Amino acid sequence: MIAADHLKRIAPWARDLNEREIEIARGGIIEKSFSANEFVCMRGDQFEFWTGVVSGLIRIGNVSRAGKSISFTGLTAGAWFGEGTVLKNEARRYDVVALRDTRLAMMDRVTFFWLLENSVVFNRFLVGQLNERLGQFMALLEYGRMLDATGRLARCIASLFNPILYPDLTRHLEITQEEIGALSGISRQNANKCLKTLEREGLLRLEYGGVTIVDLERLRRYGE
User: Fold this and answer.
1) Dihedral sign (CA 210, 201, 132, 164)
2) Whole-angstrom Cα distance, residue 222 to residue 224?
3) CB contact set of 206 (below 8 Å; sequence gap of 6+)
């Protein structure tokens, strides 16, 4: 069983729960580590956990029958995902891969549904989470069809700064150009060119081991 203060650090949704809800939540969560490029789960798996990123970086996506990799989103520390699959009790419809050494917190279905049925705070969080996730994937569909590589990369980076889905993130993102390329669906070389374009335009600053966002709103609107 994880400690209550640790739960509140890794799970923003837990910070306003009452003591009883905290005890139930921490009793239903385990943590597990994954190595870089290791699959957390694959499309078709019965992976019955609501999952949070404690540290590291994961990619959610699929590979087509022709071998083309499709990225839906990246998730950094503080993000929780998979609520839709748990609610519907169905097999996963996507692959989840650790892009670097990653530690995950995994809540079992019994605990998830206890909180869903007994905690108003938890329900409010889930409604906000599902609403933001819907908006995120609608935007992905739009810019994936309409924007060039630089635009797609800009929007991809901006999506990692959603204050609902990633509430604790600062304007500095520890991420490599290879990881940004993987999340954006482009090569590392193309990612490097796109990042330099965005830096010249004053939207971000390239730094060792990551990027710092200079103008988040322009990143979100890039290509309009």
Assistant:
1) positive
2) 6
3) 195, 196, 199
The DSSP call for residue 65 is T
The CATH fold assigned to 4-132 is: Jelly Rolls (2.60.120)
| Region 148-221: CATH code | 1.10.10.10
Average pLDDT score over the chain: 89
Q: How confident is the model at residue 52 (pLDDT cuts 50, 70, 90)?
A: very high
Residue with tokens 């890039």: 222
Confirm whether pTM is higher than 0.70: yes
For residue 3, give the amino acid letter. A
Which amino acid is residue 81, in one-letter code? Answer: F
Establish whether domains 4-132 and 148-221 are of one fold.
Answer: no
Domain boundaries of the chain, sorted by first residue: 4-132, 148-221
